[in-house]
Each structure stands twice: as structure tokens, then as C-alpha cells.
Amino acid sequence: MDVARILDTLDQMFPDAHCELNHRNAYELCVAVVLSAQTTDVSVNKATPALFEKYPTVKDLACANQEDVEQCIKKIGLYRSKAKNIIGLAQYAVEHFDGEIPDTMEQLIQLPGVGRKSANVVLSVCFGVPAFAVDTHVERISKRPGFARRNDSVWDVERKLMKKIPKSRWNDMHHKFIFFGRYFCKAKNPSCKDCPLVDICKEKDKKI
Ligand code: SF4
Q1: CATH match for 3-17+132-194 among 3.40.50.2300, 1.10.220.110, 1.25.40.10, 1.10.1670.10
Q2: Model confidence at 206, in pLDDT bands (50, 70, 90)?
């Protein structure tokens, strides 16, 4: 496959791709990423200003009452379990990392609600560590033009992307893959007739 061509195409289509979860620091992004599971960044961004005004630091959230946190995020899906996770995340960070969000994969995935994908987002966006977070968009986009196979696991996809894409491009390409999947190659009704990658795509014109 012509990796350079795909990267060039995404560069041209989405030169300003970026993290769309609003945040001011690693604490806020880590919480926002946990809240974003199975919901949109837009709905998370509506809830987090009030949440972070009430709990501006990890230590504030660690001391929070769960019902009060639920009130702040109740318009987000799975808000009860997410409230429990973000309080637990904050408590764990206070107990084990002196109230800081850690900057290694090994430590991040110890936080309640933080899996490998979420940890990769925090590592790459907040700490500049080369990483390729594979969410639902990245997984789908990777399989359509052929970075990965249809039956590959999320971990398979991450490994293949890291092997085929230069390390220096992992962090920005993660965002461009997401923009391509969110705004162009959507899960249903992708814009195949206008797609510059249509000649190499394995799934063109499929209604998935
Ligand atoms: S041809 Fe269609 S399915 Fe394939 S990458 Fe382009 S928009 Fe996505």
C-alpha cells in the first residue's frame, strides 16, 4: 500500500486536525477521555466546564461526593459509572502519584476507567509521547484503505499503524484519522464518491 499517499491525502484534507475534547491540562483531558466512552466529544464538552469549575484539581475531585458529580455529568451516557470512575481515578492519582496525572502507559492504565486507548490519548496530546490511540474511527479508517485487516483486534490495528506509519507522524496522524472518520468516511454512508482514496479502498460504497 502507498502509505505516503494516504498520509499526504489526510494532510491536505485535515491540516488542522486536533483533539476536540476541550481541556487545559492533563487532569482535564484524562477525565474528559474517560467521559467520552460511547458518547460524543460535543456532549462531553458541554458537561466539563461545570465539572471543572466545581472540581478544578485532581484533589478536589478525589474528595467529591458521587451524587454531586453525577449531577454535573448526567446528560452523558453511563454517567453513574463514569462518575464513579473519575472520582476513583482522582483518588488513585492522589494516593499513588501525588495528585498528578502520570506520564507513562504503565501508570496511566492503573487509573480506574483508563484503558490503553485513553492512555495513548493523554500520552500523545498532553505529554508529547509518540503514541497511536485507536478509537472506533481510527479502527474503521485503518481497515478501509488497508492498514489493517477487517478481523484485526484493536491492538493488532495499533501495532500495524505503528509499524507502517513513521513514528514522527503518529501523534498528528491520530487526529487526522479521527477527522477523516468523523467528518468524511463515516461509519454509515461514507463519502465514497468524493473520496481521493477510492481506488485503493477495500470497502468503498459499502453500507456498513
Ligand atoms: S472510499 Fe469510501 S469507505 Fe473507502 S476510505 Fe474513502 S470514504 Fe471511506
Answers
A1: 1.10.1670.10
A2: low
